[in-house]
Write a structure and sequence with these properties.
Blueprint: H1 2-13, H2 21-34, H3 41-55, E1 57-59, E2 80-82, E3 89-93, E4 100-102, E5 115-117, E6 122-125, E7 139-141, E8 146-149, E9 163-165, E10 170-174, E11 187-189, E12 194-197, E13 211-213, E14 218-219, E15 235-237, E16 261-263, E17 287-289, E18 296-298, E19 311-313, E20 318-320, E21 335-337, E22 359-361, E23 384-386, E24 393-394, E25 408-410, E26 415-416, E27 432-434, E28 456-458, E29 480-482, E30 504-506, E31 513-514, E32 528-530, E33 535-538, E34 552-554, E35 559-560, E36 576-578, E37 585-588, E38 600-602, E39 607-611, E40 627-629, E41 636-638, H4 639-646, E42 656-659, E43 664-668, E44 679-683, E45 688-690, H5 695-699, E46 706-708, E47 731-733, E48 740-741, E49 756-758, E50 763-764, E51 780-782, E52 789-790, E53 806-808, E54 813-817, H6 827-830, E55 863-868, E56 871-876, E57 884-886, E58 891-895, E59 908-910, E60 915-919, E61 932-934, E62 939-942, H7 946-951, E63 957-959, E64 964-968, E65 988-990, H8 1020-1042, H9 1044-1061, H10 1063-1091
Parallel strand pairs: 3-5, 4-6, 5-7, 6-8, 7-9, 8-10, 9-11, 10-12, 11-13, 12-14, 13-15, 15-16, 16-17, 17-19, 18-20, 19-21, 21-22, 22-23, 23-25, 24-26, 25-27, 27-28, 28-29, 29-30, 30-32, 31-33, 32-34, 33-35, 34-36, 36-38, 37-39, 38-40, 40-42, 41-43, 42-44, 43-45, 44-46, 46-47, 47-49, 48-50, ...
Antiparallel strand pairs: 1-4, 2-3, 55-56
GO biological process, one term: post-embryonic development
Keywords: Cell membrane, Glycoprotein, Leucine-rich repeat, Membrane, Receptor, Repeat, Signal, Transmembrane, Transmembrane helix
Domain Leucine-rich repeat-containing N-terminal plant-type: 45-82
Length: 1092
């Protein structure tokens, strides 16, 4: 084409040459004969415009414009329609071709163009203002692209435009007023852009408009009442977030008598009182969607006055009350959605009158009474029935079997009981059945296996018993089977492939036994297998891990034995492999490290003995591995050899967790671990590791979130090299080693994320680490069984442990008073809550040389060793709810402060083996969650407060022994379950379980004396005690004073006993007596001589 145009220009330059005029005329005639489209300049202009359009396309993945070349007439090019006689382009349709690029302004040269459609591409840039020249344009469809900027005001010149579709672009600014100057518009679609502002009142001036869509923008303000002037409007769409209008629907909406569809979902904030009754005037309305508008009150009866309704959606509001019988009077209704409201009462039986209904949604957060009415069986046209999570109860009516057109039945999360009716097998069109999270009992009916179209079956979280039906899935179409969390017994069916279409298989949480059938190894479509928490035994099928689409295998907590398959086919999709809590033994094969998508490997709690650690970069292909959990096996050998080889499989760019605790690894902690740049969690605890902690490992606190080295034989000091760049450490456990020296003060730098610090059972010698009191994130602090000393008075002020749940300072050398007087900041022990759902910490944005990674929350998985109820226990997932305070085996003194009664969430309190004095505070009875209380071996006095027995109703362990308590032991609630050992060593305690009974217990408690009779009344108890003492003393002492013979015999008898038991002592006493007697005689003689 370009060749012909160039030749024509050259000829025109020589046209004045008379000798060439004839040749010129002949040549032009030839050209026009060959290319008739060049018969006028305007055709040449169209050619250039079309080629310009092609050049503005940067990507044509379908080669849709390959026909646009000079070898053929442009009217034959794809997407182009020309006038049959004039050969002018009238239609340009390039829709749905995935074209990228921009829209050329040269389109303006296609002056006869009446229809321009480039919908469903990836065109971007601004809409060319030059399109305003296309005066003949009637249809402009630019929808589903990426056009941006504002709508050009020049397009108001398109007076003949009837259809303007700009749906799903990135246009911004106010809704364009230019469109209101297009008087002939019949179809205007501006939805799913970023238009803002309000709907202009000028939008009510069109005479012929039949379709208006401004949904899914960012519009606000009131809906203009002028919208009621669009009397020819048939479809109106104004809803979908983020549109959010002020006020309600204007009553003028009732003027739109021709309206057939009205959607205003998710854009209003209405009450039932503001529901426009004028909507009932829309007698031609067939579809009404007012869902997700926060509407309150009863379901509006005005909608029942629209006789032609076929589609009604009132879901996602706050309607209360009940579904009234009037909702059953529509003759043509095909779609009804009242789900996700607050409806109650019974489902009316009139619902069975909607015989044309095809889709019914009544569930999700509604709270009905009773069951499904049997009249539901009249809805023979019903295709979808959703009644999940709406408190339905009773049994499923057998009439449900009449719904022969039903394809989806969802009754999830209700309170249905009884057995599944066998009539459910009559649902010959059913593809999806969800009865999960109910209370169904009995066996799974065999008739379910007779459904010829069934593809998805969800029956989990019920009480089904018996075996899995052998006929299940015989139709060969079953793709999803959820039978989890029931009480199914027996073995798995021998053929579990169900026609080789099964993709998801969930049988976890049952009582299944026997082997995993070998047929699973032939299920080519299978992607997820969940069989954990059963009693399956035997070996794993050899071909199980060779399935090409397998992504997740969870077999934990069974009784599987044997070894891993030695080799496996290419399992390129496997992401999760969890076979923990079984009895797999032998070697972990090397093919596991060739799984490119493997993310989670959990083989903990097995009997594995060796690893194939001959790994190099050419043998490994894992690049997404996030967790290796091999703890609690029998793996052994030098840790340095293992970690050196694992360097090849530790991924880059995401946190990596490495758990090998409770094995038999020995040697020192290898420095090579410090090369694992993205190591996020490290657990080497409970092995046989020796040596010191590498300093570089502590320096990894800039990346490491969890480090557990407890239960080894590590020595030396803890390196004082925690980083503030920043310190991401959440959990540090060094418990049960032989570490010494001081606690590193650089731990104070970990003040943003540190949750658990456990250095118990070591040899650390230091004062209390007061610098930790400002770490507000701290939830566990364990310093027990070390050589910490001095007071902890620094906790008396400016302590910000708002999340602290466990404080264990036991078995150290702390002294002084109980320091804490203001407990108000210790929210973790004061506020009763469940922290299980507490979100994990987020990683704050940091430059960190571009190496900042998301920070996982490991605190819910931490294990803590505590002394609880007199025993050393390891608590797993301790941070979900557990709280404790242990100051035992120190030298604290003074009173136990009454403020400790504020710790209402405390589970265990141990203040034993100290020197506390005073009385037990009555406020301890307010610690209502307390299960273990130990105040033994102190110097407490007074009576046991009755408040303890009244308030501590969950107390299971109590030890008040070896104090100086007196009085009656409370005799109610948990105190009646404790033995004498809980109170021994308090000689003045009485009543059960002590052997001593309290005096006058049959009289009950005496009333307090009145003030008037206090001094005049006689205390007979006191008087009787005094008289008894005087009488007994007189009987014993009287004879010694007044009867000389008795006195001599008594003293002689005492002397004999002393001589037999303590002869040396007796001799010394006797010699002393003799010297005293001799001196007494000499003095008497001197006195006698002096008188003479």
């Amino acid at each position: 084409m370009c060749f012909f145009i160039t030749s024509l220009n050259q000829i025109m330059e020589v046209k004045r040459n008379t000798k060439m005029q004839l040749l010129l005329s002949l040549l032009i005639m030839c050209l026009l004969h060959v290319h008739p489209t060049l018969s006028g300049g305007y055709l040449l202009s169209e050619y250039r415009a079309l080629l310009s359009i092609k050049s503005s396309i940067t990507d044509d993945p379908q080669s849709a414009l390959s026909t646009w070349n000079t070898s053929t007439s442009h009217c034959t090019w794809s997407g182009i329609t020309c006038h049959p006689s004039r050969r002018r382009v009238t239609i340009l349709d390039l829709s749905d071709l995935r074209l990228s690029g921009t829209l050329s302004p040269d389109l303006a040269h296609l002056r006869f163009l009446s229809n321009l459609c480039v919908a469903s591409n990836q065109l971007s840039g601004a809409i060319p203002a030059e399109l305003s020249s296309l005066s003949a344009l009637r249809v402009l469809n630019l929808s589903d692209n990426r056009f941006n900027g504002r709508f050009p005001s020049q397009l108001s010149l398109l007076k003949n435009l009837q259809v303007l579709d700009l749906y799903d672009n990135d246009l911004t600014g106010d809704l364009p007023l230019a469109v209101t100057q297009m008087p002939n518009l019949r179809h205007l679609h501006l939805g799913r852009n970023f238009f803002s502002g309000g709907i202009p009142s000028q939008f009510g001036q069109w005479k012929f408009l039949e379709y208006l869509d401004v949904s899914n923008n960012e519009l606000g303000g009131p809906i203009p009442q002028e919208i009621g002037n669009l009397t020819n409007l048939r479809e109106l769409y104004i809803g979908q977030y983020p549109n959010m209008y002020e006020g309600g629907i204007p009553p003028e909406i009732g003027n739109l008598s021709e309206l057939v569809r009205f959607e205003a979902n998710g854009c209003l904030n209405l009450s039932s009182e503001s529901f426009p009754s004028q909507l009932s005037l829309l007698k031609n309305l067939q579809a009404l969607d007012l869902s997700h508008n926060r509407m309150t009150g009863d379901l509006p009866l005005a909608v029942t006055q629209m006789p032609n309704l076929r589609h009604l959606n009132l879901g996602g509001n706050y309607f209360s009350g009940r579904i009234t019988p009037q909702f059953g009077q529509w003759k043509f209704l095909e779609y009804l959605d009242v789900s996700n409201n607050e409806l109650g009462g019974p489902i009316p039986q009139e619902i069975g009158n909607l015989t044309n209904l095809r889709e019914l949604y009544i569930g999700n957060l509604n709270k009905y009474e009773g069951s499904i009415p049997s009249e539901i069986g009249n809805l023979s046209e019903l295709v979808i029935f959703e009644a999940s999570d709406c408190n339905l109860s009773g049994e499923i009516p057998p009439e449900i079997g009449n719904l022969v057109s039903l394809k989806s039945l969802d009754l999830w999360y209700n309170v249905f009981t009884g057995e599944i009716p066998p009539e459910i097998g009559n649902l010959v069109s059913l593809k999806s059945l969800d009865l999960s999270y109910n209370v169904f009992t009995g066996e799974i009916p065999e008739s379910i296996g007779d459904m010829p179209e069934l593809e998805e079956l969800r029956l989990w979280e019920n009480n089904f018993t018996g075996i899995i039906p052998q006929r299940l899935g015989k139709n060969g179409k079953l793709q999803l089977l959820y039978l989890s969390s029931n009480k199914l017994t027996g073995t798995l069916p021998p053929d579990m492939c169900f026609g080789n279409r099964l993709e998801l298989l969930y049988t976890d949480g049952n009582l299944l036994s026997g082997p995993i059938p070998d047929s699973l190894g032939r299920c080519e479509s299978l992607s997820v297998i969940r069989m954990e928490h059963n009693f399956l035994n035997g070996s794993m099928p050899r071909d199980l891990f060779g399935l090409p689409n397998l992504t997740h295998v969870l077999l934990r907590n069974n009784r599987l034995t044997g070894k891993f398959p030695i080799s496996s086919r290419n399992v390129s999709q496997l992401r999760t492999l969890d076979i923990s809590d079984n009895k797999i033994h032998g070697e972990l094969p090397s093919w596991i490290w060739r799984l490119p998508d493997l993310q989670i490997l959990n083989l903990s709690h097995n009997c594995l003995e060796t690893l194939d650690v001959n790994l190099n970069s050419s043998q490994t292909s894992v690049s997404r591995l996030r967790i290796i959990d091999l703890h609690s096996n029998q793996l052994q050998g030098q840790l340095s050899t293992l970690t050196l080889n694992f360097q090849n499989i530790i991924p880059r760019g995401q946190p990596f967790s490495f758990f090998i605790s409770r094995n038999k690894f020995d040697g020192t902690i290898p420095m090579s671990l410090c090369n694992a740049t993205y190591l996020g969690a490290l657990d080497l605890s409970h092995n046989h590791l020796t040596g010191t902690i590498p300093q570089c490992l502590i320096e990894m606190s800039t990346r490491l979130s969890m480090m557990d080295l407890g239960g080894n034989n590590l020595t030396g000091v803890i390196p004082d090299s925690f980083s503030d760049y920043p310190c991401y450490l959440q959990i540090l456990v060094l418990n049960g080693n032989q570490l010494e020296g001081e606690l590193p003060k650089s731990l104070a730098k970990c003040n943003k994320y540190l949750k658990v610090l456990d250095v118990g059972n070591n040899r650390i010698q230091d004062t209390f680490p007061c610098y930790l009191k400002s770490i507000d994130t701290l939830r566990v602090l364990i310093l027990r069984a070390n050589q910490f000393y001095g007071s902890i008075n620094c906790l008396d002020a400016n302590t910000t442990w708002s999340n602290l749940q466990i404080l264990d300072l036991a078995s150290n050398h702390f002294v002084g008073k109980f320091p804490i007087r203001d407990f108000s900041s210790w929210k973790g022990m004061i506020v009763t809550k469940n922290n299980a759902g507490q979100p994990g910490l987020r990683h704050s944005e940091s430059s960190n040389n571009g190496k900042a990674l998301p920070l996982p929350d490991y605190s819910s998985e931490i294990r803590v060793n505590l002394t609880l109820k007199g025993q050393e226990l390891e608590l797993v997932k301790v941070l979900t709810i557990y709280t404790s305070l242990d100051l035992s085996c120190n030298s604290f003194d003074g009173h136990i402060p009454a403020e400790i009664g504020e710790f209402k969430a405390l589970y265990a309190l141990n203040l034993s083996h100290n020197a506390f004095t005073g009385k037990i505070p009555q406020a301890l009875g307010n610690v209502t969650a307390l299960e273990s209380l130990d105040l033994s071996s102190n110097k407490l006095i007074g009576e046991i407060p009755q408040q303890l027995a009244d308030g501590l109703i969950f107390l299971s362990t109590l030890n008040l022994s070896f104090n100086q308590l007196v009085g009656k032991i409370p005799q109610n609630n948990q105190f009646t379950t404790f033995t004498e050992s809980s109170f021994e060593g308090n000689i003045q305690l009485c009543d059960f379980p002590m052997k001593e009974k309290c005096i006058h217990e049959e009289l009950g408690p005496s009333p307090p004396p009145s003030k008037e009779s206090h001094w005049n009344s006689i205390d007979w108890d006191f008087l009787s005690v005094e008289l008894g003492f005087v009488f007994g003393f007189g009987i014993f002492i009287g004879p010694l004073i007044f009867w000389k013979r008795w006195r001599k015999r008594y003293y002689k008898h005492v002397d004999d006993i002393v001589f037999k038991m303590f002869p040396r002592t007796y001799i010394r006493i006797e010699n002393h007596r003799r010297r005293a007697y001799t001196n007494q005689g000499r003095q008497a003689r001197r006195n006698q001589g002096g008188r003479d």
